[in-house]
């Protein structure tokens, strides 16, 4: 069975008595390709000390029936391990379904795979129906299990921590490599991302498969290397022992997994995921320049003191004022008040209206911080409903950042939150919510139910207030995933606004996320988290290439810094349609964003450390139309370099000084009229 889409071909070959196997997953094959020959050439050879019916890694390896690698599915019913056996394949165009049935137990499992429409994309999910009389325990049910081509010899492990998210580490593949989330939320540990590629692949060269599960709870991935040399990648939601029990008559659907196969390194992964993210997010209005109050004032605020800050933000060009933590009932530090989502009357005696009106008069709309899933033990909500938080009866209630987590598997809790947030949005002209989540979930037996409760709450809120944008924040980038994408329009990528850190972070997030979804703010110097000092033009240029905002208090900047910042905000506004709709190519020296029609591009060449060499080679600009000539303008100094063709720009590049640490050049390229 063959399907084609997104520039890919997938061929499944039948394996009598067992699930089909993947005979080909890769770049599109010729129309006339002989599938029987392909199946024969890829058929696993007989080997010693193996099951007699050894079909290798199937499209969905099951546990307990002779396969010795990691199973993608483990189900139990009536004290038995379920046997899926042979699957029936239906295919049409770019999609296929594999159906497994256990007639004895009344179970059916369906895999649903689709190629494209985005370049290199495979979307996969699984669905289990229980039409039998027994309760079925789901121990494991991957969204995707994919045998890997033999070039995949290196895992690229996503991990990180608070204020240093999305680190990517290459690891040679041997044995089983993988990670399972245990914190109840997406977290910092990269458990929702699995990447297998060639060693030494780079931005432009090499084969790679990058996979992600669109899930905001606990996820699990693994890349399994068997003794036969075969490898498989698996990704899906993770389940705690006994967590998911499927009653007779019930159905369970996994979250979708997305995998992008690229034959041109990370840039091919970017092309697939950016187009996918744009489809799932839908069209966004031009992304306004945020001013976020957190690093400027932290908890130290009231209505009168915010007005001059709003003025200062407007002067440097901000278009949205986001009031961060500290505005609600009694909140003076991080020890109280979560759950009491009403305006603090001591700080805001006339409510938020005067603040919002002041921002509006300065041309800014208004956003506000909330952390709806949490409750402080010192809050009216907790005093009224001490049983609403996640807890184990009769045992201690461990806090994190002094707070407890509300149990979103309870309808009453979600109904209350929906009403509290709706009241806030009805009563105030709020364009944007910064939706935070500052601790892991514990104690909890079903983080899965918590995630479903969150999705339902967000979906209902979005349906009622479709014009309110939501940003997903979790102590920075602790909840960045495609389950939130589509429900949220922005990710707060990291609490670290240090431009050197951000340069690395924007690069490592870019395979999965387009720049318009990544919140990037100009922070203070010295930076409040790292203590590093950096020039304003460097800070502003790094923030400009994502969804730009400002976190530093302009009143504490020098007049020169304010002027430089305002100039870069103006540049961002001029170029944001290009930046947020273009095609991104990274090079070792930076990145270039190219208009879909190739008529224009903006490049940022930026480095953190000093170059090892005294004379840096020219800075190459890949991806432009080779035959067209481009005007080359170095922005923020008004310098113009001689025009060049796309071919020259890609193969030779621009001669600019690029040796000193913390250098950043912003270059605009515009095709000359034909
Ligand atoms: C988290 C967020 C920050 C800020 C604080 C407020 O740490 O990541 O950006 O909103 O909470 O308490």
Features:
ten-stranded antiparallel sheet, 12 helices, eight-stranded parallel β-barrel, alpha+beta, 674 residues, 31% strand, globular, 37 strands, binds alpha-D-galactopyranose, single chain
Could you describe the 3D structure shown?
By secondary structure, this protein is α+β, with helices and mostly antiparallel strands. Helices cover 21% and strands 31% of the residues. The protein contains twelve helices and 37 strands. Strands 6, 7, 8, 9, 12, 13, 15, 16, 20 and 21 form a ten-stranded antiparallel sheet that branches. The chain has an eight-stranded parallel β-barrel with strand order 22-23-24-27-28-29-30-31, surrounded by four helices. Helix 4 packs parallel to helix 5, helix 9 runs parallel beside helix 10 and helix 10 runs parallel beside helix 11. It is globular, with a radius of gyration of 26 Å. 53% of the residues are buried. The model has no long low-confidence stretch (mean pLDDT 97). The protein binds alpha-D-galactopyranose. The site of alpha-D-galactopyranose has 12 residues, from loops.
How would you concisely characterize the structure shown here?
The protein is of the alpha+beta class and 674 residues long. The protein has twelve helices and 37 strands.
Give a topology summary.
Layout (H helix, E strand, L loop, with lengths): L1 E4 L2 E8 L2 E10 L7 H7 L31 E5 L2 E2 L6 E5 L2 E8 L4 E9 L5 E10 L5 E6 L2 E4 L6 E8 L2 E9 L3 E5 L12 E5 L10 E6 L5 E7 L5 E7 L6 E3 L4 E3 L3 E6 L2 H17 L8 E3 L1 H4 L5 H13 L4 E4 L29 H9 L3 E6 L3 E2 L4 H5 L19 E2 L5 H17 L4 E4 L11 H18 L4 E4 L17 E3 L6 H11 L8 E5 L13 H9 L2 E4 L8 H23 L1 E5 L2 E5 L5 E8 L21 E6 L4 E7 H6 L11 E9 L3
Parallel strand pairs: 22-23, 22-31, 23-24, 24-27, 27-28, 28-29, 29-30, 30-31
Antiparallel strand pairs: 1-2, 2-3, 4-5, 4-10, 6-7, 7-8, 8-9, 9-20, 9-21, 10-19, 11-18, 12-13, 12-15, 14-17, 15-16, 16-21, 17-18, 25-26, 32-33, 33-34, 34-37, 35-36, 35-37
Helix pairs in contact: 4-5, 7-8, 9-10, 10-11
The protein binds alpha-D-galactopyranose.
The site of alpha-D-galactopyranose (GLA) has 12 residues, from loops.
